[in-house]
Specification:
mainly alpha
Length: 185
C-alpha cells in the first residue's frame, strides 16, 4: 500500500476514476466521505445552524430584555418601598413627638391638678384651724363668762344676805322712781 496522501492527490492511481465502482482503500474513502459530508453539512446545515444560532441569540436577547424589565420593575418597587418607608418613618416620628407631647401635657395636667388639690387641702386645713380656734375661743369665753357669772352670783348672794345692802338698793331704786316721776310731771 502506498502513502495515503499520494493516493488522494493523484487521480491517476485511482482505478475507479475512469469508471464507476467501489474504492476499497479505507483511508482514501474516509477522507473523501468526510469531506463530502462536511461539505453537505456546511451547505445544507448552514441555514439550519444559522437558524438555531439566531433562535438561541433571540432567546438570549429576550432573556436579557426580560431581566432588564424585571430589574427596572424591582428598582421601581424598591423606590416605592423606600418612599413608603420614609413616609412611615416620618409618621412614626410624628406619632413619637405627638406621644411625647401628650405625655408632657398629661404630666403637666397631673401636676397642676395635684397642686390644686394640695391648695384645696391647705385651704380646708386653714378653715378647720380657724373653726377650731373660734370654737376654742368661744368655749374659753363661755367658761370665763360662767366663772364671772358664778362669782357675781356668789357676791350677790353674799350681799343679799346682808340687810344693809338691801336697804341701800331700795333707797336707790326709790330715788330713781321719784326722779322719773318728776320728769313726767
Amino acid at each position: 500500500m502506498k502513502n495515503g496522501t499520494d493516493s488522494f492527490l493523484s487521480l491517476g492511481h485511482w482505478p475507479s476514476a475512469r469508471s464507476f465502482g467501489f474504492n476499497t482503500d479505507i483511508l482514501a474513502t474516509n477522507l473523501i466521505n468526510l469531506s463530502v459530508v462536511l461539505g453537505l453539512l456546511i451547505f445544507f446545515g448552514k441555514g439550519v445552524l444559522s437558524d438555531l444560532l439566531d433562535n438561541r441569540k433571540q432567546r438570549i436577547l429576550n432573556s436579557i430584555r426580560n431581566s432588564e424589565e424585571l430589574r427596572e420593575g424591582a428598582i421601581e418597587q424598591l423606590e416605592k418601598a423606600r418612599a413608603h418607608l420614609r413616609k412611615v418613618e416620618i409618621e412614626a416620628d410624628r406619632f413619637r413627638v405627638d406621644g411625647y407631647s401628650e405625655i408632657e401635657r398629661k404630666k403637666r395636667n397631673l401636676i397642676d391638678s395635684t397642686y390644686k388639690t394640695l391648695e384645696e387641702l391647705e385651704d380646708y386645713k386653714n378653715e378647720t384651724l380657724n373653726f377650731e380656734q373660734q370654737k376654742a375661743s368661744t368655749q374659753v369665753r363661755q367658761q370665763v363668762f360662767q366663772q364671772a357669772l358664778q362669782k357675781a352670783l356668789g357676791i350677790l348672794k353674799s350681799c343679799l344676805n346682808n340687810s344693809e345692802f338691801h336697804l341701800r338698793i331700795i333707797v336707790v331704786n326709790i330715788a330713781i322712781l321719784e326722779a322719773r316721776k318728776e320728769l313726767r310731771d
